Fold:
Amino acid sequence: MVKKNKNPRKGKIIDKLRNFKKDLLTIPNLLTSIRIILVPVVLLFIWFNTPLMRLWSWIFYTVATVTDFFDGYLARKSGTVSVSGKLLDPLADKFIVNLTLVLLVAMGEIWVLPVLIILAREFYIFGIRSLALENDLVIAADIFGKTKTMLQMFSLPFFMINQATLLDLVGINWDPSGVGYFLLLSSIVFSLISAFTYTRNVMNRIFGN
Structure:
C-alpha cells in the first residue's frame, strides 16, 4: 500500500530546496557566489587604508564586477537563467555596493546624504520584492535598475583609489572623488525611476490594473 504524503507543504519546501541547490551549482550562479565571497575581502583592504591596500581593494573589486558581467552573459548563452540567479545576482550587487558605501561613509570619505537615499530606496524595494514573492512573482530588474547598479559600481573605484593613493603610487596629485560623486548622484536618479517602475509592475501583476 502506497503511503500518501501527509504534509504536501513540507514536500514542496523540500523540492524547492533541491531545485535551489541544483540552480546554485550552475556556473553563472557560482560566479555570483564568488562575487559575494569577495565582498569582505574588498572591505578589509579598504579598512586597512594604506595606498597599497587601497590598490588591492580595487583589484579584488574589479574581479568581482567582472563576474557580474559574465554570470549574466553565461546564463543567457547557456539557457540556465534561473529563479535563484534572479534573486542572487541583485543581492550580490547590493552587498558589494551598499556595504562599500557604508564603510566609506564611516571613514568620512563619502557624503552621508546620497548614501542614505540609496539605502532607503533599497529597503523600500526589499519590502516590495517581499510582497511580490508572497504572490509567487519574481520580477527581474529593468533597464533603469541595471543602469543604477552600473553607475554605482563604476563610481566606487573613484573613492577606493583616492587622492592619497594616486599620489603615493603613481605620483599624480588628483582627487578622483568628483567623478565618483557625479556617477553616484546620477545613479540616484535612475534608482528612483526604477523604484517607481518596479512598484508599478508588481502592483499591476498582483491587482491586474
Summary: The radius of gyration is 20 Å.
